[in-house]
Write a structure and sequence with these properties.
The complex is a heterodimer of chains A (295) and B (238). With 295 residues, chain A is mainly alpha-helical. Chain A has eleven helices and four strands; from the N terminus they run ββααααββααααααα. Chain A is globular. Classes of the chains: A mainly alpha (295), B alpha/beta (238). At the A-B interface, helix 6 and helix 7 of A face helix 2 of B.
Chain lengths: 295, 238
């Protein structure tokens, strides 16, 4: 049997794919966080809760209304995005002029409330969401068999990240967004309704988290705390990539997922902490993050 | 000139930054196709006057009528959409965007007759065409200033608020900007110019308002310039 550093090739490739799938979730979640931080200057601790809501909403739509997975992929991000808009108008818009810590605490409180409500409604035991029929089974990649659904997750996540990148880096709307992150008052002086832009950006960022939640639903046991455990890791990803950096979030998310996967092969005990070890090293060497501009 | 309704009428304008009360009852009018300069020493309140017209100060009271609309309670973006273009002192070039992205950034006003095409702007400022793909942060000070001015001309704004546009620039660039302002004035633009460079402002202005301690302390028409020069020197001298 072929080996790499003494590890069977199959096991190595399997962990790499698993790492890549996790990395896709890190990328898409940190992308939403980066977009929100970039424009709103809010460290959104409720992002994980929105991811969890996305998974639960897909589950509820399927089990109570028979709405299929594919429809949920479109409906859920919009629904959770609208909830995000409501939360932004009700709570966050009052905090933009204050220190980051207020936004962080407010969103932390919101996350706790949302998780508590979901726990009261659904309990703490995990719910199972079936893999859609078209994506069941495994696909032979030549060197290994991979569950088809995981290939779909990687493809859909990368596509979502690419579309967001395209929107932000290559369109007029994206240019306005980037300008708004640099000087919102001047952008308003050009006739742009910045509060509306901010509101829509928050909704879109939250919608991305919900999209990740729907993608994750068939892979995890859906419970009110699935977002909580991811939030900390995703924040580390954003910090490593550089706060507010779009490319940094995506590249770092994917890379750290793979790093985590590889660590699981060689030293499984460190797999849960390797991301934070990388964060410490990056902060020591490049305090603004790998792709950050350092402001 | 005073028979027509002013494009901009400022009445008893007070403005604050935090606890700091900067403007103390500013009053003036600007009419169509006029170029009016706000002169004064550093900290007199000239920039704050421009910023408060657009609602960019922390707080303001009084009346600011733009194109006949009292905008005192309006948000900034709504005032801008009346046809107000703002060129800030720091130029406000977005470093994350290219020269052309900066130029295309502000939305074009609906139903505006004044909106210039990108080609027209490149004709006025040929340097910008050559640098159109360069990132905003790589432009020279003069190029940034031309871009800041060109950017608001594309929107179709007809009331231009220009803050210290000649500051820190080489004489040849200052001359280019002066020519551009004369051309804009002849095309019917209304210009409110904040300047410290009296030599730049005087030949362009129909009137000069001297601001001191947040109030207009002297108004000088172009025809009175010779006679009021001693007073002007007294007010602007260090």
């Amino acid at each position: 049997m072929e080996t790499i550093f003494g590890v069977p090739l199959n096991a190595f490739a399997g962990q790499l794919v698993l790492g890549l799938v996790n990395g896709c979730f890190y990328a898409i979640l940190s992308l939403g966080l980066a977009v929100i931080f970039g424009l709103l200057n809010v460290v959104n601790f409720a992002h994980g809760a929105m991811y969890m809501l996305g998974a639960y909403l897909a589950y509820v739509l399927l089990t109570m209304f028979g709405v299929p997975y594919w429809a949920s992929l479109a409906i859920v991000p919009i629904a959770v995005g609208i909830l995000g808009v409501v939360l932004e108008r009700a709570f966050l818009q009052w905090l933009y002029k204050l220190d980051h810590i207020y936004g962080l605490l407010a969103t932390f409180g919101l996350a706790t409330i949302i998780e508590g409500l979901m726990r009261a409604q659904f309990g703490v035991s995990g719910q199972r969401f079936p893999v859609p029929e078209a994506l069941t089974g495994a696909t032979n990649l030549g060197f290994m068999m991979v569950p088809t659904y995981r290939i779909w997750v990687v493809a859909a996540s990368l596509l979502a990240c690419f579309v967001v990148w395209l929107l932000i880096e290559r369109t007029r709307l994206g240019a306005t967004l980037r300008a708004g992150t640099q000087n919102p008052k001047l952008v308003a002086a050009f006739g742009v309704n910045v509060p509306l832009l901010v509101m829509c950006t928050f909704g879109a960022g939250v919608g991305l988290a919900a999209f990740a939640g729907v993608l994750a639903a068939p892979l995890v046991q859906i419970n009110p705390l699935i977002g909580q455990s991811l939030t900390i890791t995703v924040f580390a990803v954003v910090v490593i990539g550089g706060m507010g950096s779009i490319v940094g979030s995506v590249v770092t998310g994917l890379a750290l997922g793979v790093v985590e996967g590889v660590t699981k092969i060689f030293y499984p005990e460190a797999s849960a902490t390797v991301v934070f070890l990388v964060m410490v090293l990056v902060l020591l060497l490049r305090p603004a993050g790998l792709f950050g501009k350092g402001n | 000139m005073a028979l027509t309704e002013p494009i901009l009428a400022v009445r008893d304008l007070n403005a604050w930054y935090g606890e700091s009360h900067v403007l103390h009852g500013i009053e003036f009018e600007v009419h169509r196709s006029e170029c009016v300069s706000l002169l004064g020493r550093n900290g007199a309140g000239r920039t704050t006057t421009l910023r408060s017209i657009l609602g960019l100060t922390d707080r303001r009271t009084g009346r600011v009528c733009v194109f006949g609309e009292d905008t005192a309670r309006w948000p900034t973006h709504r005032i801008a959409r009346l046809g107000v273009g703002f060129c800030p002192e720091e130029r406000g070039i977005f470093s994350a965007l290219t020269c052309e992205e900066n130029l295309m950034l502000p939305p074009v006003l609906k139903n505006s007759q004044m909106a210039m095409s990108v080609e027209e702007i490149y004709e006025i400022f040929p340097n910008l065409y050559e640098r159109r793909r360069s990132p905003g942060m790589k432009l020279s000070g003069g190029e940034q200033q031309m871009l800041a001015l060109g950017r608001i001309l594309r929107t179709g704004a007809s009331l231009l608020l220009l803050d210290e546009i000649s500051e820190g620039l080489a004489p040849v660039i200052v001359q280019t900007l002066a020519r551009a302002i004369k051309r804009l004035k002849s095309k019917g633009y209304t210009i409110l110019l904040v300047e410290q460079n009296f030599r730049f402002a005087a030949p362009l202005s129909d009137r000069m308002l001297v601001i001191e301690h947040g109030q207009v302390v002297e108004t000088i028409n172009r025809s009175e310039l010779g006679e009021k020069m001693p007073r002007l020197q007294e007010l602007l001298g260090v």
